[in-house]
Amino acid sequence: MADPAREEGATAARVYRLPAILLGIGLGGFFDGIVLHQILQWHHMVSHLYPPDNLANLQLNTTLDGFFHAVRWLVTLLGAHSFGGAWPRPGSGPLDECSSVVCSPGGAASTWSRARSTTRSWGSPRAPGAR
Question: What is the pLDDT of residues 13-33, one digit of tens each?
């Protein structure tokens, strides 16, 4: 007989594999772009083809670095969205709210409204069993 807990763990590993890879690529790209490109200025995207030794080449390298950051941002958003969608029940993942905040102003307003109403109710006295 198969062990149900082991099968459930294997299924969870398969479900979370793609989101984890996407988040890893996105966050690794952020590290590369921020630390190596901007802070340390060790290299740019095409500095091996167009050395940043004149203004035109530096502008080209910087522009392509910007596209690199945009793609990494999209990969990270896709990974966060995929991770939120990998939860077994709709709306049960911790990143569902996060991805709605990042992706839409309506999601941000809705999340803010829910958070405000929740925190307001923390200090208010309630009757037992009241909702």
Answer: 788 888 889 999 999 998 988
Q: What is the largest CA-CA distance in the chain?
A: 73
Q: Report residue 82's pLDDT band, with 50, 70 and 90 as the boundaries.
A: confident
- Amino acid (1-letter code) at residue 77: L
Sequence ranges of the domains in the chain: 15-116
Separation CA 111–CA 22 (nearest Å): 25
Q: List, as one string, the DSSP characters of the chain.
A: ---HHHHHHHHHHHHHHHHHHHHHHHHHHHHIIIIIIIIS----TTTTTS-SSSHHHHHHHHHHHHHHHHHHHHHHHHHHHHHHHTSSSTT-STHHHHHHHHH-HHHHHHHHHHHHHHHHHHSS---TT--
- What tens digit of pLDDT does each residue of 40-61 get? 888 888 989 999 899 999 999 8
